[in-house]
Amino acid sequence: MSGILVFAEVDARELRPEFWELVTVARNMSATIGGGIAVAIIGADLESATREAACAGADALHVIEDDRLAAPWPEAHAAALIQLCGELAPQLILVPRTILGAEAAARLAVRGGWPLVQDAMQLEVTPEGGLLAVRPVSGGAVAATVRANAGPWVVVPRPRAFAPAQSGETAETAPVRHVFAPPPFATSCGTRTRIEVEGISVDRAKVVVSGGGGLGGPEPFALLREVADLLGGAVGASRVAVDSGWVQQAQQVGLTGKTIAPDLYIAVGISGAIQHLVGCSSSQVIVAVNSDPAAPIFRIANYGVIGDWKEVMTAFRDTLAARSHQAGRAA
Amino acid sequence: MRAIVCLKQVIDPLTPATSLVLDAQGKKIRVGASSPPVINGFDEQGLEAALRLREALGGLEIICLAAGDRFNNDVMRRALALGADQLVLVQDPSLDTWNSYPIASTLAAAIRQLGGTDLVICGRQGSDWDNGLVPYILAEQLAMPILTLAKRVTVTDGRRVEIERVLADGSVIMDAPLPAVVTVTSELGALRLPTVAARLTAARKQPRQLALADLGVAAAAASAPEVIDLAIPVTGRSCTFIEASAGPGAGARLAETLLQAGVVRLGGEH
After folding, report:
1. What three-state secondary structure class fits A79?
2. pTM of the predicted model as reported, rounded to 2 decimal places
3. A81 contacts in B (CB within 8 Å)?
4. Terminus of chain B with fewer CB atoms < 10 Å: N or C?
5. Do B146 and B252 have their domain in common?
């Protein structure tokens, strides 16, 4: 049992970008886990994704390409991953925290009886050969340090907790092909429907401007929309705002809404209940505007303004608009 | 036909993060007595899925099952007020644990003790530890297929369960033969409210208690990580407060600060 296996998820023929964050984790961990880094690339129609993954500087590239892996069918993808783990016997398996990845990780861990660490923000191997990880719990309000003794370890790194690795210039790792030999499937996977979202959806936007109960009604969301438009972003909301009927459910960020990790998250009039923090605490930069200095949202914010949201956000919009106008004229 | 809905009692996620208290000794997260627990939100949606199935099928026995420590009966009995035929609780101090295996093994043993089921419905994850592992362990131990992240659950011809599974950019239809485990997600919609009449009827029903010792739960061979430390805050971020004499000044200064730090870029620079 040795080495690190990175699960490279492919969605609609494209290598998912989380892969490069996993490569960073693998490189960090390879100093203490011998046996090199292998990449597992699983799916159908993998030509361009394989070429891309071959630039990651891994020691080996294992490919399972099969038509049954064209759909995001968790049982099939997990079976392919389980098969490769059986053949390669890695010590550490890294899987992206995506809808498909998180499920493949859970199925793999349960099948192998191996310890699973979800949402890992920090990872290290202890001198005794155990795995130590830090991960958020209770919606990110608390950090838990967990220890797993015997491996193999299945780890799902937290999105954005690790910087993406740089891709190499050339495809230097030659792919090794494996024939997919799954056990009989218990589930079946049918047609996939894609939803076209109008404008930018909160889970894809690089900037999200969210409003909460502190706004007091639906009207103030127009101001947030103006700010979001200036920044090329989307408007989000807390559960209170959605439950009050001020905005649509699709905009909800949090435990019962979406979990997002934009570059910039601006929380306006949101106090920061666990319910909400779970959905936004992976954002790269968090700005909180709230009149209550004791609001928990400030605990996870990088920038905070204590004050009346209307005054603050109106001036914020005006300043951005003026700068945008200047920039437009200069260009 | 029978559905068993697994419920977990958790800290109310609307609790402000600032009121959490860490029990360093026991590696537990606590809140004051003024904040009553709730049924895990995703599990409530599991109950809603079962109630909708009962309406669609014109009959379905619904048993709500929970394994945990120190249940708040008023909170858990909400399941009865909403129409569950039975509420079954396995209460034991050892079940207040981060480890998914003892909980799942207990639920699996209780399901067997209750005579099995056609469908097990779980929420996608607990809002406390967020391991999301119990449904998979249940499926493994009960030797049932598992379908996850359902926003719609239907039973076709009494033999198969079909779900609409949520994806990041849409959904996909999946199905499996019964008996099966299904997990539901928030897109399914919130749990309905109990009627006054149902509430009154439920007030006379008592939860059924199963003793852990009587279930013959086998110790799981699987290895799970243990929690060795809990800490607040999680992020290590330190908040830079933008100071100004009044709101408008602070708003303008916030914009300048973010522009200068390169956090904010304007018009088409993305």
Report:
1. helix
2. 0.87
3. none
4. C
5. no
The first and second tokens of residue B256, run together, are 């300048």
Domain residues for B198? 2-215
Tell me the pLDDT tens digit for each residue of A40-84.
Answer: 999 999 999 999 999 999 999 999 999 999 999 999 999 999 999
| Nearest Cβ partner for A296 among B17, B131, B264 | B17
B200 and B267 within one domain: no
Q: Which domain CATH number covers A33? A: 3.40.50.620
Torsion of CA A289, A293, A298, A299, to 10 degrees: -170
Asked if B112 and B196 sit in the same domain, the reply is yes
Where residue B16 sits, what CATH number does that domain have?
3.40.50.620
Q: Which residue has the tokens 């934009």?
A: A262
Decide if B9 is inside a domain: yes
Q: Over the stretch A169-204, which tens digit does the pLDDT of each residue have?
A: 887 889 999 999 999 999 999 988 887 655 678 888
- Please compute the mean of the pLDDT values over residues B45-70 and round it to a whole number: 96
Asked if A71 and B172 come within 8 Å (Cβ–Cβ), the reply is: yes
Question: Pairing state of beta strands A142-148 and A131-137?
Answer: antiparallel
Query: DSSP string covering A178-243, please?
Result: ----PPPPSSEEEEEEEPPPSS--TTT-SEEEEE-GGG-SSTTHHHHHHHHHHTT-EEEE-HHHHH
| Contact between chains at A188 and B170 (C-beta distance less than 8 A) | no
**Among A116, A52, A50, A47, residue whose Cα is nearest residue A78:** A116
The answer to whether residues B80 and B205 touch, using CB atoms and an 8 Å cutoff, is yes
Encoding tokens for residue A251? 């905009």
- Say if B268 falls within a structural domain: yes
Distance from CA of A294 to the nearest CA of B (A): 8
